[in-house]
Target: Leucine--tRNA ligase
Amino acid sequence: MEAKWPAVWEELKVFTPLDDGSKERRYVLDMFPYPSGDLHMGHAEAFAMGDVVSRYWRQLGFDVLHPIGWDSFGLPAENAAIKRNAHPSEWTYANIDTQAESFKRYAISVDWSRRLQTSDPEYYRWTQWLFTRFYQRGLAYRKDSPVNWCPKDQTVLANEQVVNGACERCGTIVTKKSLNQWYFKITDYADRLLDDMDALKGNWPDRVLAMQKNWIGRSEGAHVRFVIEAAGPGKPEQELTVFTTRPDTLYGATFFVVAADAPLALELVTAEHAEALSDYREQVKALSDIERQSTQRTKTGVFTGRYAINPLTGEKLPVWAADYVLADYGTGAIMAVPAHDQRDLDFAKAFGLPVRAVLDTGEEDPAATGTATTGEGTLINSGELNGLSKAEAIPAAIAILEKLGTGEKFVNFRLRDWLLSRQRFWGAPIPIIHCPDCGEVPVPDDQLPVRLPDNLRGESLAPKGTSPLAAAAEWVNVSCPRCGGAAKRDTDTMDTFVDSSWYFLRFVSPQYTDGPFDPAKVNDWMPVGQYVGGVEHAILHLLYARFFTKVIHDMGMLEATEPFSRLLNQGQVLNGGKAMSKSLGNGVDLGQQLDRYGVDAVRLTMVFAGPPEDDVDWADVSPSGSAKFLARAWRLAHSVASATGTDPSTGDAALRSLTHRTIHEAKALLEGHKFNVVVAKLMELVNATRKVIDSGSGPADPAVREAAEAVAILLSLFAPYTAEDMWNVLGHPASVANAGFPQVDESLLVQQSITAIVQIQGKVRDRLEVSPDISEEELRELALASATVQKALDGRGIRTVIVRAPKLVNIVPA
Ligand code: ANZ
Ligand code: ZN
Model:
């Protein structure tokens, strides 16, 4: 079967959408793979799930777009190239070919004519084009900034790529380094990225929405400006703004803290305290943000020698520099309210600073207990705010600040701009030319793509802290597109997350040459109706893809404002309850599984193991059981003896009812992604059909054909080879993929009969097939009329008959 059908599917273009508007369109997308070696068990699971949806929608009669491509830029290709003294493209495209062959064998129902690779110049031309458009809109900019630096990979890492202070890729402890870097201004879209999630509720997993929400981290509060007293006679006053979510606690501020590592700390510190601060800053550098904010650590800090004036009270507050305040959140400075903030209280205790409660919450005095009070309550010690609740006092305090001109309402976000430049080779070059006279000049459209040079190989690609492209002199030196003078190309490449932020748009017209996608096609397909992929992409990829979609919408190129209407996160494939890994030696080779059990059995096992969101433990499943079931289904088709066209209404009523109920229930289950239950229902139907063939009305019963056809069509969602073969044996032309979802005869959905048990003194004597609506009288009569019952009574009279319609009759003889 595996040798026969792929060629047929390809020839008939079964999985190529018509794309002519004759049918309603639907777009199914699996997160595209990274070409690291051959496909593994994880791919097998994810793609089996995506294929169920795409094959289901095709059976429903939709014109389905289900494409595939490769996310083919990135570090592993570069590392392999360095090791083998080769070009990264060699490793990349060899792996892609291997994976493509495996995907074809795996029979995923994709339109191969739309295949793309993000490392193809035809693709990255448009990645670069989009970058220039973002640049023109002020959404791509450069700034000097301390960046996360992986000393081993010698590359900059985005915040997201730092996990517990270590490089996500290699585990090396990440350090900070100041570099001039490119950023996308995703923060301009923070509000929309948050607000538009409302429309995704119910269609995306709740936890993904929660993670995105937390990542965006919207906090409502106020900016408050404090005057910092001059450091001495003749010196200037300064001003310092803090972000607070609790302007109601302003009267309770007893000191001030600036992030010790922020330049601000150096600006403020007096000569007397400068050395202490400088020593302290060295200490702070070594710590991760997580360590710095931990509530477990003893608070540390140094006094700056300066004082801030509370704008409401005129009170002088000492300004400290400490590590528990982060330089890159809010304004990098806070007013400390130890009575109502635990970290401030810990700090106050450590340095003997005053604690003043301004909210009476009924709890014990925080100064005495060491526990900050954070509940609701009434304002005290707060002048004009006294007596108000917290909810009333927040806007009241903001109103006062606004009147004084020393503050206003402010919404702060945790979200940072997206650091997109990488000092690596195997990525899309940033299409900017640096001219000594004109500054940054975007590469004109007609000079795109800026191709990677192909003469760099092996060691010359190795990371050195500057981009390997900088070494390619003939590539770097160009004339300025604006003035014609000598200029240099930007030598950084883009984060591969840029490539994957718009690939779903390219799929609507992958060969289009006048833009990133055909404007006449894109709104026909977008948004993606079902996106399938791992939860590891819950934050970054999805956030970036949403951001790109909104910008491209704002450019007037796309109607959709969200890229993915529905999201399904498949579970992981484990072995023995643990993720497969080299070190545990519990890896399972997909190719070997396919050789041993066949593609269909492996696919069916993935789907049958449980709901798609759950992990699949390969040690707990039975691919051989799946193979046996498939063989049973397949034999069913071979047993069918009735000719096509026979009227099924003359067939076995119970089997017909089961067939139609199965179809009916399958539809609801498929909509709810309960694929595993559909498989269970199919197993039941196959068994029932076999019974009718072997011991019922036999293989010529038209209900048997009807059941076998329904099995073939439903099975085509999970086991395409077996289903295609069954369909063929049943006398239909290829392909079962387009057979159409079987029609349900509503009148057959009511269960036609039920088995009533007839007992004599509690002993079962007969079983009667009766209508579920049978009356007590009728059931009593039927039971007493039964020949087996009469024989068992053997002439005895009857004392009582207990009837529980429609299920039970108990006869008590005299
Ligand atoms: C005074 C205050 C009183 C605060 C109080 C809290 C409770 P979220 O909700 O996470 O946005 N904060 C502001 N910038 C900070 C920084 N760079 N590093 C550490 N902490 C910072 O938190 C906002 C609150 O966290 C702010 O409100 C500020 O402390 C602190 F009873 O101001 B608050
Ligand atoms: Zn110039």
